Amino acid sequence: MSQYRTFTAADAVEYARQYGQQADPQALVSADEIGDGNLNLVFKIRDADGVSRVIVKQALPYVRCVGESWPLTLDRARIEAETLLIHGALCSRHTVQVLHHDPELAVMVQEDLSDHHIWRSELVKGRYYPLAAGQLAEYLAQTLFHTSDFYQTAQLKKAEVSRFSNPELCQITEDLFFSDPYQHHERNQFDEVLLPQVLALRDDAALKLAVAGLKHRFLSKAEALLHGDIHSGSIFVAEGKLKAIDAEFGFYGPIGFDIGTALGNLLLNYCGLPGLFGPRDAAAGREQRLQDVRELWLIFADRFLALCHQHSRDATLALPGYAEQFLQQVWTDAVGYCGTELIRRTIGLAHVADLDSITDPEMRAECQRSALNLGRALIVNAPYIGHIDALLARIRQHG
């Protein structure tokens, strides 16, 4: 029986030889630990020519950036692997392939994506992938529809909700999205220049009431098996290709949360572009991000509705007009969750390079204020932003 131990590079190589599905396992000779997240070790396993062939990922029993004072369950590795396996079966083209996983060692072996790039890094560099927004929309539509009540039987759905109960990782989301940014907390991180705006957010009764509603829906709406952390750092892109990775936050939750998180990361880039590029390039990039936002929602909505109309298994939910009514609530949720992503990534624990890599302090602060202002506007006004063009108008209004 497997017993947990933290892998060394040598352990990772040996494990990849056993489970990496390589034609010549002994050709794997070295490993580089490349994990830059907060929860895992990630090893690139290379052959004698230095070519990366496979990835070995192991969950740590604590939050990496904090240390052993913030312990975490290792069961999240099982949840991540099984979420990716399910999502891969539903949308293999846009989900990283899991070759093997061991829940006791909290380790999995994945396909190597060295020919891809992290989408956030590409966005920060100003590199455009014209198919990416549509491909992400397809991934979200396929995975969220097929794990929802429209498609799964009630009995299977209830069993799956239990199997993917992920209380510790959900607690992190609940704290970082809905609690920490709106109070004094040691995990919050922001430049002193933002303090007046941070204090204003903490005293904003209308904002906090809207956030309470978003948190309650996050806690109570088990609508589909979410990725749970589908930001631009959890997506690999290449020319004509996109793959989602890092699903350790997977659980059954509100569909609008995954959509809102994806939209929020495009808008974080939108807010940061004036600090990353000159005026002309920034303006062109911002317009492209708005088109990405529009495309992401419209393609998702079109595909999700088509799946509902063609493949819904519940006769009541298949009634004409119900899927459209449901999707309108998903949209409202998504706009609100998008706003929480903007705020928490600006003043909470986990920041993004779209803002933090801006070298000029004054411009960085201006872009951060823009993200905070936009985030608040989306959260408070989500019930009144009825469609995608109204959202784009609201964003342009905030500059």
UniProtKB/TrEMBL annotation:
A Pfam cross-reference name: APH
Gene3D superfamilies in the record: 3.90.1200.10, Phosphorylase Kinase, domain 1 (3.30.200.20)
UniProt keywords, alphabetically: Amino-acid biosynthesis, ATP-binding, Kinase, Methionine biosynthesis, Nucleotide-binding, Transferase
Annotated GO MF terms: S-methyl-5-thioribose kinase activity
Aminoglycoside phosphotransferase domain ranges (all copies): 33-263
InterPro entries reported for this sequence: Aminoglycoside_PTrfase (IPR002575), Kinase-like_dom_sf (IPR011009), Methylthioribose_kinase (IPR009212)
Superkingdom, natural source: Bacteria
UniProt key word Secreted: no
Top class in the EC scheme: transferase
Its EC number(s): 2.7.1.100
Positions contributing to substrate binding: D229, R344
Residues engaged in binding ATP: N40, K57, E111, D112, L113, D246, A247, E248
Catalytic activity: 5-(methylsulfanyl)-D-ribose + ATP = 5-(methylsulfanyl)-alpha-D-ribose 1-phosphate + ADP + H(+)
Nucleus among keywords: no
Pathway where it operates: Amino-acid biosynthesis; L-methionine biosynthesis via salvage pathway; S-methyl-5-thio-alpha-D-ribose 1-phosphate from S-methyl-5'-thioadenosine (hydrolase route): step 2/2
Function as written in the Swiss-Prot or TrEMBL entry: Catalyzes the phosphorylation of methylthioribose into methylthioribose-1-phosphate.
HAMAP family hit by this protein: Salvage_MtnK
Family: Belongs to the methylthioribose kinase family.
Subunit structure: Homodimer.
Protein's name according to its UniProt entry: Methylthioribose kinase
